[in-house]
Design brief:
- This protein is an alpha+beta fold.
- The chain folds into two domains: about 160 residues, Aminopeptidase (3-Layer(aba) Sandwich); about 90 residues, Glutaredoxin (3-Layer(aba) Sandwich), CATH 3.40.30.10.
- About 30% of the residues lie in helices and about 30% in strands.
- The strands form three sheets. The protein has a seven-stranded mixed sheet with strand order 1-2-3-5-6-8-7.
- Helix 6 links the parallel strand 10 and strand 11.
- The protein is globular.
Length: about 260
């Protein structure tokens, strides 16, 4: 049986996101889902797409989210590429059958049809981002590295300029005190923001919260993830969604160092 016989692809757009749903958050009534859906619909994200793979029982088994690189919510400068925000294949069985490669091929087909110069994505061996193995398997190469992140690129036009990282470390010293910078690109961010805000209040900490509302702001964010940064006095403490428990552990550690 071909892998294509074992799943169907649902195309998610600004017009149908509230009905079709998104991956990572199944509760359509949750504040995080609602915020993500509204973010998805924003005119600032023109060209944003998500493909969700469903198995024969209608269960979500994988997805990829991508958009024109100029509108990426990551610290990347890339002209005329498609940029992949997220790609996830949930089960080992689906990964071994090549579902991730199938999704990447679909994005590449769209890039070719749109006359794009290539496809790019960020990878990491840390949390909340795909590692580079899937990209390498599909002929992506690493063109830049910063911290735990790598910029993976597959050029379709050999003469096109390569995408590059925007140096987010230069932004960190601007933040004095405790800061949480986030965007609604991930449906889990709103819960984290709410939990961390309450934890800060309970611990007598002033936590300044800034919501990023445009791709340009995210591209200039002070962390590699772009849409989530926890900073204290210019020091990056978390660059992805964290729980209240994790935040309180960070608080204790930082307060010990005073």
């Amino acid at each position: 049986m071909k892998i294509e016989d074992e799943f169907t692809i649902v195309e998610v757009t600004a017009e149908n996101v509230s009905e079709v749903g998104i991956c990572c958050s199944k509760d359509k009534k949750s504040p995080g889902f609602i915020a993500k859906a509204e973010w998805f619909k924003s005119s600032l994200n023109e060209g944003l797409r998500m493909k969700i793979a469903l198995d024969n029982k209608g269960r979500q088994i994988a997805f990829v989210e991508y958009l024109p690189s100029e509108l990426a919510w990551r610290p990347v400068k890339a002209d005329n590429y498609l940029f992949i925000h997220c790609i996830t294949v949930y089960s080992k069985d689906s990964r071994e059958k090549g579902l991730g490669s199938k999704l990447l091929q679909m994005v590449e087909d769209e890039a070719l049809a749109q006359g794009k110069s290539g496809i790019c994505a960020m990878s990491s061996n840390g949390s909340w981002m795909a590692d580079k193995k899937l990209f390498q398997k599909n002929n992506f190469t690493t063109t830049s590295e910063m911290g735990r992140f790598e910029l993976m690129v597959k050029k379709l036009d050999p003469l096109a300029p390569l995408p590059v990282f925007i140096d987010w470390a230069k932004k960190m010293p601007e933040y004095k005190g405790w800061h949480l910078i986030y965007a609604d690109q991930c449906p889990w961010h709103l819960k984290s923001v709410t939990d961390l805000q309450q934890a800060a209040i309970d611990n007598g900490i002033i936590l300044t919260i800034t919501k990023l509302t445009t791709p340009a702001e995210a591209q200039q964010a002070p962390s590699g993830f772009g849409t989530f940064s926890l900073i204290k006095d210019g020091k990056l403490l978390a660059d992805h969604y964290i729980s209240r428990t994790r935040f309180e552990n960070i608080l204790r550690q930082e307060l010990k160092q005073k």
